[in-house]
Amino acid sequence: MRNSEIGFRVTHNDGTTDSMIALDCLKRLFQFQLPEMPKDYISRLVYDPSCLSITIVKKTGGFISGITIRQLQARHVAQIVFCAVSSAEQVKGYGAALMDHLKHHIKATSSVTHLLVYADNYYVGFFQKQVFTKSVSLDQSVSMECVKGYEGVTLMQYAIGTGLEGRQYDL
């Protein structure tokens, strides 16, 4: 798929019809792609007004991928709570492009200096390719404020701005 056929959309729960429709589609994508996550837990975070989501959508309609973050502005940290690419669109670079877009968006629009993620152990390699590290330098009290991890995950960190120069994705 070419860039002219897709678009990035930044959304959050601002109560508008457009946002609620987008968040509903994103919620369904996460529920399908993350079947082990409780559906009500996904809904609660996707619709949380303090969370921000970025999606890649087809111009003809339909969601390709999405990511939802929870910002801890007082700590200048954001946590990635969900990240998924639809099954039919995996291994095409959409996950990397979405992550890159998220990093640029955060750098341009907020005071967030670090991203944290509890990466499923199966996806640690993906996050390492996105310049996340297992060496978390932030104070432990910061990670304690994040959505709690669970068995089979690794806490990882990204310093905003690291590795952003010259990154482009031909989608």
UniProtKB/TrEMBL annotation:
| Gene Ontology MF terms in the entry | histone H3 acetyltransferase activity
Query: What CDD domains does the record point to?
Result: NAT_SF
Question: Pfam families, from UniProt?
Answer: Acetyltransf_1 (PF00583)
Q: Which InterPro entries match?
A: Acyl_CoA_acyltransferase (IPR016181), GCN5 (IPR037800), GNAT_dom (IPR000182)
The keyword Plastid is assigned to this record:
no
Q: Which UniProt keywords apply?
A: Nucleus
- N-acetyltransferase domain location: 10-170
Q: Which GO terms describe its biological process?
A: positive regulation of transcription by RNA polymerase II
Q: List GO terms (cellular component aspect).
A: histone acetyltransferase complex
Return the protein name: N-acetyltransferase domain-containing protein
Q: List the source organism.
A: Fusarium oxysporum f. sp. cepae
